[in-house]
Design a protein that fits this description.
Helix content is 67%, strand content 10%. The chain is mainly alpha-helical. It has one domain. A three-stranded antiparallel beta sheet has the order 1-2-3.
Amino acid sequence: MPSVSTETIEDAFCWLYYKLKHHGKAILGNMISTHLTIRSRRMLWSLDVIELNKQISDLTNQNQLLSMLKQQGLVDSDVFISRSNAIAEQLQKAKQEKSRILEAEGDQTVQQTEELMDILAEGPEFIDTFDAELFSDLVDRIIVEDGEHISFQMKNGLRLKERIERMKR
């Protein structure tokens, strides 16, 4: 693996920061949107979520039928209240379970990307010298690709490649 000086990495980070500060909002916003869409579509086909959606639908239909029977005078008030409360409790449990599953399936990418966007929004317009605190807030690790490229893996997992220029002797 080629050796890259600290100064070269710091300069590449300054350039990367400038590009993210001025163009990152669209890129990171699109990343969030795409990630949410993919996660949502993936969850639509989860067997647990499908079963819970069916259960929620059935309970909602039961509740509507019970209300209709009550309006027509076919169900006693005590029976209606008792059964309605039982259905509401089952419905709440099913919705909570669905939320728990969706949260467990999710990762931290969206939250981490939003945090990056906040850091960039609050940061200076450009940095002409390396800022170690800003670097540690944004970057998870550095990967030396070859003698001409390094990649910065951001805190949200996004990997951004920068071209580095060697000083000529």
